């Protein structure tokens, strides 16, 4: 094979609560591609819930499982819509793999919207304690973590369908 291979996957990145899973489902329906929710895939591969991985082995073990899972998913030859976890971008190897193998779209949202969407979700181990404070702190820590994306879309005030439509338009015209 000569030359660099064309990116094949649509990779959705962004902070928790920005709509990655919902938009991924809508894109998959529209495009006829499989959708892979990274968090669900990690839980399937590990045989336990993400919150249990955090509780039993810590964030480091989860991040390793996340990187391993992402690498395997991105190596698949069929086009997929991949909804990553919010922290999948923290490892440089993950960012490089996403860019090499996909069209990367960062979904963002206003802080108040994120807190409203995820603030009471017990399945989010990084938000234990005061969820609003944790969201503010994590957003500050990850302020530029999603800057490498090919496209950034703010989902605030948009329906998931509107976001999916914007991604579809960009995907179609990227040629």
Automatic annotation (TrEMBL):
Q: Which organism is it from?
A: Paenibacillus mendelii
Q: Does the keyword Cytoplasm apply?
A: yes
Q: Quaternary structure?
A: Monomer.
SUPFAM superfamilies registered for this protein in UniProt:
P-loop containing nucleoside triphosphate hydrolases
Q: Top-level EC class, please?
A: transferase
Q: Spell out the InterPro entries in the cross-references.
A: P-loop_NTPase, Shikimate/glucono_kinase, Shikimate_kinase/TSH1, Shikimate_kinase_CS
Cross-referenced PROSITE patterns, in alphabetical order?
A: SHIKIMATE_KINASE
Question: What is the documented function of this protein?
Answer: Catalyzes the specific phosphorylation of the 3-hydroxyl group of shikimic acid using ATP as a cosubstrate.
> Which EC number applies?
2.7.1.71
Q: Where does Mg(2+) bind?
A: 21
Q: State how the cofactor is bound.
A: Binds 1 Mg(2+) ion per subunit.
**Pathway connected to this protein:** Metabolic intermediate biosynthesis; chorismate biosynthesis; chorismate from D-erythrose 4-phosphate and phosphoenolpyruvate: step 5/7
Pfam families in alphabetical order:
SKI
* Sequence positions that bind substrate: 39, 63, 86, 142
Q: What name goes with this protein?
A: Shikimate kinase
Q: Which residues bind ATP?
A: 17-22, 124
Q: Which family does it belong to?
A: Belongs to the shikimate kinase family.
Which molecular-function annotations from GO does this UniProt entry contain?
Answer: kinase activity
Arranged from A to Z, the UniProt key words for this protein are: Amino-acid biosynthesis, Aromatic amino acid biosynthesis, ATP-binding, Cytoplasm, Kinase, Magnesium, Metal-binding, Nucleotide-binding, Transferase
What reactions does this protein catalyze?
shikimate + ATP = 3-phosphoshikimate + ADP + H(+)
- The answer, when asked if Metal-binding is one of the entry's keywords, is yes
Q: Indicate where this protein resides in the cell.
A: Cytoplasm
Q: Which cofactor does it need?
A: Mg(2+)
